[in-house]
Amino acid sequence: MDRRELGIYVHIPFCLKKCAYCDFLSFPAKKDTQRAYFRALREEIAAFSPEGGMEAVSVYFGGGTPSLPDAEEIVRTLETVRGVFSLSADAEITIECNPGTLDGEKPGAYKEAGFNRLSLGLQSMDNDLLRTLGRIHTRERFLEEYRNARGAGFENINVDLMYGLPGQSLSSFARTLSEVISLKPEHISAYGLMIEEGTPFWERYHEDDLAKQRGDKPLFLPDEEEEGRMTDLMKKTLRKNGIFRYEISNYARRGRESRHNTGYWKRREYAGFGLGASGQIGKIRYRNTSILEEYLKHPGMREEETSLTREDEIAETLILGLRMTEGVDLRLFQECFGIRAEDLFREQIGRFLEEGLLEMSDDHLRLTERGFDVSNLVMCTFV
Ligand code: SF4
Fold first, then answer.
1. Which residues line ligand 1 (CB under 6 A)?
2. What is the pLDDT of residue 104?
3. pLDDT tens sequence across 73-109
4. Which protein residue has the closest C-alpha to ligand 1 atom 6?
5. How far is the CA of 98 from the centre of ligand 1 (A)?
6. From its phi and psi, is residue 362 left (phi > 0), alpha (psi between -120 and 50) or beta?
7. Which fold has domain 4-265?
8. Of 11, 12, 14, 15, which is best to mutate to test ligand 1, by the most ligand atoms within 8 angstroms of its C-beta?
9. Which sequence spans correspond to the domains of the chain?
10. pLDDT tens-digit profile of 365-376?
11. Residue 183 class from Cβ within 10 Å (0-12 exposed, 13-18 middle, 19+ buried)?
């Protein structure tokens, strides 16, 4: 029987409080709601029947703040995952943690349960910026918890950063970068701030009535050129320190690329569990309900289920593949779809090759450095 590699995503939607820019499916909740959620979550996982040959190569507990609830709930949930799925011996098992919640015995409990990768949402080392973002932690608290996690034996740590923040200067971002690098994390994810509708940042940025009623000051962001300088600085500084870009927003030491996220970009199948979680098994893409009351009553209830068409799969293979610096494997593309990508998109690929935004070598099609700066423009032509 063919081996089918699978990723597993488990969503923990709880946060201590909502950050000012966040539009993720996350919210504060009382302990008894959290307990009810974990009961439902384990029920959903236990009801899943893996198809023959499926082997989980990565498990990812994301949120929200998975490090907020009692560690015991997380440990029992991972046990449930292990009871249902066959995990490869070297499976990457990650838990997302937010500084300010990774206290006491938690890192040790996660390690003992089998988590082998930890992702810490730092965002910035500048305490004023952290306050502006509405984060619950300080630089000092992050440093304490980072060391605590290392002390518990975590040898694979990701640090999340943000740039293009209100009031952020290039030198403040440079300080954050150099302090983070000095901690020698294996992986860094760095995202430019997006102003999402429905968030306090949106209200402030657009100076709408709600923001005025609250007396909030308007939000000023670094301009595009300054944000471009931040991206350049980050690429150069990280490369100089042996941390290489392997995806638009992700950088890692060699061999420490996130196996779970790489699975999404390579279109590996994945099972998603929890409130609002998505999955894709075979050609079926689904999303669970994002209404908590519904989920607690009917764990695993879906609000959307679609069957991917050949066109969807072709577009996704190109768009997701181009996010990675290794690019799209053209030989695999031809094997999957029975046609060469170069023939199917002859005009677009030809034009971008000529303009120096794409390059082709070793049977791979990839964005050039310049192409990465305008990746949306290139990718949308494949839809
Ligand atoms: S900690 Fe993360 S998920 Fe929670 S509110 Fe902040 S940004 Fe959103």
1. 15, 18-19, 22, 24, 26, 63-65, 98, 121
2. 85
3. 999 999 999 999 999 999 999 999 999 999 889 999 9
4. 19
5. 8
6. left
7. pyruvate-formate lyase- activating enzyme (3.80.30)
8. 15
9. 4-265, 310-383
10. 999 999 999 999
11. middle
